[in-house]
Amino acid sequence: MIHSLRALKSNHLEALSCILFGRNKKCHINFFNKIHLPDRSMFIFPLICFIVDNFGKQGFNSTDSSFDFPYVIFPYFPEHQPQKTLFDHFQSTEEQNPDIATATLDCLNNRTICSKFKLRPGYVHISYPPHNNIIKTKRQINNESLDRLSKSVQHRNLQDFSSIDEIYGNASLNIPVFVLAARPNAGDLEDKYPVFESLVMKFIGEDIIFSFVTDSSIYAQLTTFPRTDLIYISPYGQKVIFDDEDFILPQVVKFVNQHKYPVLMHLFETQNAFSNLDLIETLSLVVVDEKIENDVEIFIQKMTPNVPLLFLNRTKYPILSASICMTNEDINEADSKTKSCYAIVNFTNSKAIRIDTLNETVINEVISNFDEIHAKLPLKYRLMRILFFTLQFRGKVVVLYSIVSIVFLVFFAGLFITLIDFLEPKKLKKK
Predict the structure, then answer these.
(1) pTM for this structure?
(2) Which domain holds residue 346?
(3) 81-103: per-residue pLDDT in tens?
(4) Which of 77, 243, 316, 320 can bridge 121 by disulfide, Cβ–Cβ 3.0-4.6 Å?
């Protein structure tokens, strides 16, 4: 049966905190909703914790099998009803799955709980035993993505492949593949595999495929004996090997971030992808045009991707297109928004450097010296880009701050005038 969870009322927060943070005391809980499971255990939400009949003997870190389930949680507001409908369907398809528990939570009626446990409405969240950390995923909510999420959660984000063709077949424009290839008894696995495990779990919230390969026939086609390598497989069958001598978590995370968006031709076709664009921390090669021309597509396919490659439709997004394509001479031109261009962009920091041609040598040079080149641009050019990026990604916040600023300005102006009027000596009326 599906382990379907329902929300507790907000007055159970203290009991939940007891469970979630593993306090060594017995948690006394009155249930708002009970679901009886085959092992006579019961769930409560949020952080979806099992409460066994005699819960409290060992605290939250109980060894009872009930705590071994990973949880998939969808908090929502009324405006997320379409996504909730998809998640409800996902729950029904998982009804016979004995390995995960799923839940929905109405954050309109349970605001305190959603806030307390940092559950962001409209996003799927994941929790693994011992359930002291909730992971907000960046995955889109559709049937295909939720199905992949279920498999990722059950297998701790590792996927098995039986052949090299299967690996290449799974690499796509939107779902990158990373493989740790090793000999079964490789001596360096003792050091590298724990790092790889941490890497895999760090990215479980994203649509990325990870695999650990020791099959000799696959290994021989991925790397050179006797190496143990982390390899990115591009959508076009290219291999990029992590070549840093220090196989440590920060470095492999950086490697994945550099390659996880190989070619996002359709990045701006969905609202979610566009709204998250300013969260991409690495540099991006951006093509601004109305469509991808054949020669550009051929170049992208041949290029070894060192940065995300993004396509921006200048007709749909004129403000952002103008801010990326303008040069110092273009700042005062009214038609800058109609231009096409190529650029290296740091969306997070509102920086961009326009390039004249798709030349891999030029691109790599700009990437290597990005901050130095950008610092030499005129100040007004840099300020204009910050303004445009802010309007594009944080327009609502700008409007809100503007309204608040105007209100405060009017208030203090009135207060100042009143104070001046109060301090001004009163003139005596002449008789």
Answers:
(1) 0.54
(2) 274-394
(3) 999 999 999 988 887 777 888 88
(4) 77
